[in-house]
Amino acid sequence: MTDLIFDMKKGDTHNPLQLLLKHGTSSSSSVVDLTSDTAKFYMRLRGERTNKVDGTAMSITGDSAGELEYQWKTADVDTAGTYEGEVVVTYDDDSEETFPENSDKIVIVIHKSYD
């Protein structure tokens, strides 16, 4: 994975955050098989220590294809700013893995709206 950047407007909850989890670098990567696993999403304002989204369950939409999504809630997107996110997968053997791997980031930019 490399940095994934998602732009949205403050208050927008219609379109979920959709991710494809992979192991390795973009030139040699493999899709993460999420069959029988669970995933949680975490997000916080860049530079802060308090999570705005704190381990909320994600929907796995493609088990063997590594596809999942997080449906935004109003409180998640009520403040403009640049946020960083991560996904923690719990495998069926109770081991955990955090995505993205290494120093890559999920970046969510919430822009001010006109209303």
H and E string: EEEEEEEEEEE
**Counting H and I runs of at least 4 residues, what is the number of helices?**
0
Beta-sheet strand percentage?
over 45%
- Main β-sheet description: 6 strands, mixed
For the terminal residues, how far apart are their CA atoms? 35 Å
Query: Spans of 5+ residues with little confidence (pLDDT < 50)?
Result: none
- Round the mean pLDDT to the nearest integer and report it: 92
CATH superfamily: Immunoglobulins
Shape from CA axes?
Answer: globular
Care to give the gist of this entry?
The protein has no helices and eleven strands.
Secondary structure layout:
Layout: E1 4-9, E2 17-20, E3 22-25, E4 28-31, E5 38-45, E6 53-57, E7 59-62, E8 67-70, E9 81-90, E10 96-99, E11 106-111
Parallel strand pairs: 1-11
Antiparallel strand pairs: 2-8, 3-4, 5-6, 5-9, 7-8, 9-10, 9-11
Features:
mainly beta; 115 residues; Immunoglobulin-like; globular; 11 strands; three-stranded antiparallel sheet
Plain-language structure description:
The protein is an all-beta fold. The protein has one domain (4-111): Immunoglobulins (Immunoglobulin-like, Sandwich), CATH 2.60.40. It has no helices and eleven strands. The chain has strands at residues 4-9, 17-20, 22-25, 28-31, 38-45, 53-57, 59-62, 67-70, 81-90, 96-99, 106-111. The strands form three sheets. Strands 1, 5, 6, 9, 10 and 11 form a six-stranded mixed β-sheet that branches. A three-stranded antiparallel β-sheet has the order 2-8-7, with no helix packed on it.
